[in-house]
Amino acid sequence: MKTKLKMLLFLSISILTLPIFAANKMVVEGPCDSLETLKLYSLFSEYHKNKDYESALPYGWQVLECDKVKFAKWIYYKMEECMWQLHDSSNVAPEEIKAIEDSILGFYNMAIQYYPDAMPYFQVRKAFVAETWLKMSPDSVITMYEKAAEYNPDMDAYYYNRLGQLYIANMNDENDYKSKAIDVYSKLAVREPDNPEWPRVLSTLVEDVGQLLDIRKKNWELDKDNLEKAWVYASECIRAQDYQRAIEPLEFLVQKSPDTENYWNQLATAYNKVGRLQDAEAAYQKLLKIDPNNKDFYFNLGLIYKEQGKLSRARQYFESANDKAGGWGMAIFSIGLLYEQAARDCTFDFKTKLVYLLAQETYRRAVSIDPNLAQARDRIGALSSSIPSQEDWFFNKYKSSDVIPITGDCFTWIGKSVTVP
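The structure corresponding to this sequence follows.
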């Protein structure tokens, strides 16, 4: 153990100071040629594969002393695993752990320099060990995490949260850590809308939702052409259900990125929520140009036309939604609701009862597509007293299996028939 520890210390200190002091001394005895380097890497890799990390590590350092680039795709990850496993092992002496801690930041700097493809990975790991192993100053660790986020804006939420907690723990009137913490948790809330932790943390940083929206708006206005800031502001407005405020950044986003489906979808929803139905209609028509096979866009257009009282057009889009879905109980159920709406708006007579029967038959069709559609089952039962009775059939001289067209001034748009049961 002591011999290996001395070798580990000597090799790690030698190689990590080499770039700084331009040292020429080689640890490997004899020529450090490609064949010798390959043999060293093979020994290192074999020990690593067998999880003998203590034996692997000195060979790994020697490989890096010979050539820091040749095996970069593999050796830096494996070396890191060796050091982490040994550092966290209960069987490793404190002085060996200290040796690893003394060399780990230099190792990460080397990995970042000589294997830039993995720069985001090694930078965030460097920040993590600086925080947890080395207990470096918060400002230093924050700088490292910020650099990791710069390298990889999609950094894992775990590390963003660590950065956010560092901001919170160290914010004061002389720094901008509170604002940065709000940025971090706003980003996480947008990325993971179903995670309740991020809004909870945000609520501790701002007095109310309105203040948060004001902050998001100000950040965007200071960098008005920034799509990400506009989206963060819009997303916060949507989460707060302040759809009126969401419209401005969403309109900016669809102007700058006119083929982005999500921006248009959110804008259509916002228009609909504030009662701007014609604008919502136009937004969904744009969405259908972007994705003409999306059943939800047809369905939502149907809802808008229903809200406008354009029942025939609404039915057209509900039917299209059903076709695009290859059978969709909710779309057919919504057509039944159109028939009910039409019947309620007219005098309750035999012709109106026929429309209620049509609605009931439509609900049965919806249930045949989706047996779990409880709403449709409920409406079937609810209409039982509104459809024609046996006496109605008798007095109007209809018999079982007769097909009766839907007529009447209120129902000219329907163009359907019902069958006498």
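Residues 1-114 form one domain.
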